[in-house]
Amino acid sequence: MDIDAWLWWLIGAAALGIALVVTAMPELGMLAVGAVAAAVVSGIFGGGAVAQVAVFAVVSTALIAVVRPIARRHRSQRPELASGVDALRGKQAVVLERVDGSGGRIKLAGEVWSARALDRSHSYEVGQEVDVVEIEGATAIVM
Question: Are 58 and 9 members of one domain?
């Protein structure tokens, strides 16, 4: 049984696809696309071995050269979403009961929180706006 060249390219593409899933290396996916392109050249256009290898090399290299920098840039620009108490850091709150180094109450994100001043010698009076610096347990540290 003689297997056509295009089928070998598809088997290679499938192997690269499996390797991509196992290793999570996106470059293997780009090589798999190059192998599919070589299979198309072989099966549909009847290109010879040199044309197949050239198409594989050009398509794979082009994908790696174009896609990798875009992916790297996208990965570095992705905003991190804060949730839970991490999302409360940097928010403003209103003092409900005098806040000093030993305690007090604030209204933060629509809820009443216990709070204490970051600078223990400083105090904040009712109605003042404060910034949340940190959350320690159920207490907001404000300034």
Answer: yes
Please tell me whether the overall predicted TM-score, pTM, comes out greater than 0.70 for this model: no
Q: Provide CB contacts within 8 A for 140, sequence distance 6+.
A: 88, 93, 106, 108, 113, 114, 115, 116, 132, 134
Domain count of the fold of the chain: 2
Residues 44 and 92 both lie in one domain: no
Task: Give the integer Cα–Cα distance in Å for 30 and 133.
Answer: 45
Counting every residue, how long is the chain?
143
Asked whether 15 and 25 are in contact (CB, 8 A), the reply is no
Last residue of a domain, one of 77, 92, 118: 77
pLDDT in tens, the chain (143 residues): 457 999 999 999 999 999 999 998 989 999 999 999 999 999 999 889 999 999 999 999 999 999 988 888 887 776 667 777 788 888 999 999 999 999 999 999 899 999 999 998 999 999 999 999 999 988 999 99
Structural domain of 20: 5-77
Domain check: are 51 and 92 in the same one? Answer: no
